[in-house]
Amino acid sequence: MQQFFQSADMAEHASHLSGWDQRYDQLSNGPLDAALWVRDVGSVRLFRERLSQAAIQHMQLPRDHLNLIVPLVWPQRCSQQPWVLDGVNLLPNQHEFRTVTGAGMDVLGLSIPYAELTDLLSDSTLARCRANHAVQGVALASAAHEGACRELVELLMAPAHDAIKPRLLDLTARLLSELDEVPARPISFTTRQYIVQRCHELVMDAPQHAGNLVDLCKRLKISRRTLQYSFQSVADVSPIQYLRSIRLNEARRALTRHPQARISDIAAQWGFEHTSYFCAQYQKLFGEKPSTCRVGKRDA
Question: Which residues contact 135 (CB under 8 A, 6 or more apart)?
Answer without folding.
Answer: 82, 83, 89, 90, 91, 92, 99, 185
